[in-house]
Amino acid sequence: MDTVDLDDAFDAFEERWAPRLVASLNGQELKVAKLEGEFVWHSHPEADELFWVIDGELTIELRGEPDQRLSDGELGVVPAGVEHRPVADGLAEVVLFEPAGTENTGDAADTGRTSEVQRLDE
Fold first, then answer.
1. In this structure, are residues 97 and 77 in contact, taking their beta carbons and an 8 Å threshold?
2. Which residues contact 12 (CB under 8 A, 6 or more apart)?
3. What is the DSSP string of 24-55?
4. What's this model's pTM, rounded to 2 decimal places?
5. Average pLDDT over residues 1-11
6. pLDDT value of position 122
7. Checking CA distances to 26, which of 47, 50, 57, 101 falls within 20 to 30 Å?
8. What share of the chain is helix, strand, coil (3-state, %, to 5)?
9. When comparing pLDDT for 103 and 74, which is higher?
10. Which contacts qualify for 5-8: CB closer than 8 Å, 24 or more apart?
11. Alpha carbons 82 and 2: distance in angstroms, whole number
């Protein structure tokens, strides 16, 4: 059985908006990411996306709906096809859970912000 220490995982890298793969299961991927500032508006037409805030605060702006603010220990799921933009005023350490192969920029891949997912141990 593989185990992951989330504190060690977040300590292993500094880059912002560059998710690191820590586990795969049943066609899904669990990633850790350090988020700071605004990301791009995007959606994932075929995939729900879970954001679980481990440390810090994260606002998920939703097109045409009220923003959702997540704090330490809170999680939220953006349904497939919903346009959203994550925003972190300060540093936020976040776990992401989504289908394998999901790009961080979803349908907005031509923004220059797409990050190739690296395994944490690379």
1. no
2. 20, 120
3. EETTEEEEEEEEEEE---B--TT--EEEEEEE
4. 0.91
5. 94
6. 60
7. 57
8. 10, 50, 40
9. 74
10. 6/32, 6/54, 6/95
11. 33
